[in-house]
UniProtKB/TrEMBL annotation:
It comes from the Bacteria. Residues 1-24 are annotated as: Disordered. InterPro entries: Maltose/Cyclodextrin-bd (IPR006060), SBP (IPR006059). GO terms for molecular function: carbohydrate transmembrane transporter activity; maltose binding. This is Extracellular solute-binding protein family 1.
Length: 447
């Protein structure tokens, strides 16, 4: 595994219940630099909202999570609170919907050692950074075994750093190629075939756009990572210390450029995020969509006629005859290092990631579960998750984003230098290599 600290007791921050109270912590240069940039953010109410119960003996747990649109997270919090028999009560603190905004809010509060940070929802790419900064508590071996029992190994890996579990998978995720069965009788297997189908449909005056993330943000980094991996490469070396952008990265850039200068490109591509892609597809202007499975329950609700025509297949590859490698996504749950309710928070995480809550989140919200056996459970598949086998296949072949405490800086450099899609070129890769090297050396860190 990549280098990191071992999470021993002597390296964990203290939880004395006051801002600024902490023990000795060893941090990587990247994490320490990021912390230094935000340590001055003295947040109002630091350490004042998570220290007690609700007056009836129940620990008041704050769960920081984005506003999941189906309401499944809120239902899980209510059900788990009731099932705890008075041990704890979970209140949701809503984070921004975009990953960058979520991280910024969490980092600023953690830098101020806010003791209200009980249960934290972390993007799968944040584990190295938050672990190295000692912002989250590691789980011991017994807890790790119990909390991840039956989960997909690839999902558990996203919450692990230096061979220790810091975050329990809440859901996993992988993109599929969604297409209109009434427009595309045989789904494409490669990027070039997809663009050729879109060109044919455009010539016929029929819906033809390929909806995919193109705005300058994390989703664009995910697109680039999936293309590089599907071309047989990766962005960083296995240990996360060196830039590894070779010929596969050139193929990835050429694929972006080919889409940008073809009829398949939505005119607003350079401003689109996942939800923009969903909305555009639901209006009927597109033939394809590269996106996560949340789009399926949404289409069933908003455009049932269109939903009946939605087909799905694996992400298009750049190498004919070889499997594609879409990027694994998802969210994990961690215990904040300054929480006064570590045991209760760990117990609540076990409930929130439990089987029934995962099923409801998948059916209602489209978020793929982390429990392996659900992907072969006919009741689950036939009950509202028909694409489960396709998601499972994608996860088995999924790529990961660069695993480094400096990930945020690496991601921002990718999204910045390769934007907008219409001006991307192989020549920009030299600039990207240099910028990523600087990020790994803790230059140009971002809060």
């Amino acid at each position: 595994m990549e280098p990191g600290h071992d999470g021993g007791p002597e390296e964990r921050p203290g939880r004395g219940g006051r801002c600024g109270a902490g023990g000795r912590v060893r941090r990587s240069p990247a994490a320490a630099g990021a912390l230094a940039l935000v340590a001055g953010a003295a947040l109002a109410g630091c350490g004042s909202s998570g220290g007690g119960g609700d007056g009836r003996g129940a620990a008041a747990l704050n769960w920081y999570v984005y506003n999941e649109s189906s309401g499944s997270f809120a239902k899980a919090a209510a059900d788990c609170s009731a099932a705890s028999n008075g041990r704890y009560r979970i209140s949701i603190n809503v984070l921004p919907n975009d990953s960058d905004g979520q991280r910024q809010q969490l980092v600023r509060r953690l830098a101020a050692q806010d003791s209200s940070m009980d249960i934290l929802t972390l993007d799968v790419t944040w584990t190295p950074e938050f672990a190295e900064a000692a912002w989250v508590e590691p789980f011991d071996q017994a807890e790790s075994t119990r909390l991840t029992d039956g989960m997909l190994p690839v999902a558990v890996q996203t919450g692990t750093w230096d061979n220790q579990l810091y975050a329990v998978p809440l859901n996993t995720n992988a993109q599929l190629l969604w297409y209109r069965k009434d427009l595309v009788p045989r789904p494409p297997k490669t990027w070039d075939e997809m663009l050729a189908d879109a060109k044919r449909l455009a010539a016929q005056g029929r819906p033809h756009y390929v909806e995919v993330q193109g705005a300058q943000y994390e989703g664009y980094t995910v697109l680039f990572n999936s293309l590089v991996a599907s071309a047989g490469g990766q962005i960083l070396s296995d240990d996360g210390t060196r830039v590894a952008l070779g010929p596969p990265a050139e193929k990835a850039v050429e694929a972006i450029r080919a889409l940008a200068h073809s009829p398949a490109a939505d005119p607003s591509w350079s401003n689109q995020r996942e939800d923009d892609n969903r909305l555009a597809f639901e209006t009927g202007s597109a033939a394809f969509q590269l996106n996560y499975p949340f789009i399926y329950p949404s289409a069933k609700q908003n455009n049932p006629k269109l939903a009946a025509q939605i087909g799905w297949t694996q992400w298009p590859t750049l190498v004919p005859g070889q499997h594609s490698h879409s990027t694994i996504g998802g969210y994990n749950l961690a215990v904040g290092a300054y929480s006064h309710h570590r045991a209760e928070a760990a117990a609540a995480i076990g409930c929130l990631t439990g089987r029934q809550n995962q099923i409801r989140t998948a059916i209602d919200g489209g978020l793929p579960p982390t429990l392996k056996d659900l992907y072969t459970d006919r009741k689950f598949i036939d009950g509202g998750y028909p694409f489960a086998p396709a998601i499972h296949e994608a996860l088995q072949n999924a790529s990961v984003r660069p695993r480094t405490p400096a990930y945020q800086s690496v991601s921002l450099q990718i999204a910045h230098i390769l934007s907008p899609p219409t001006s991307v070129s192989v020549g920009r890769l030299a600039d990207l290599r240099g910028a990523i090297s600087d990020a790994l050396d803790s230059k140009g860190l971002v809060p």
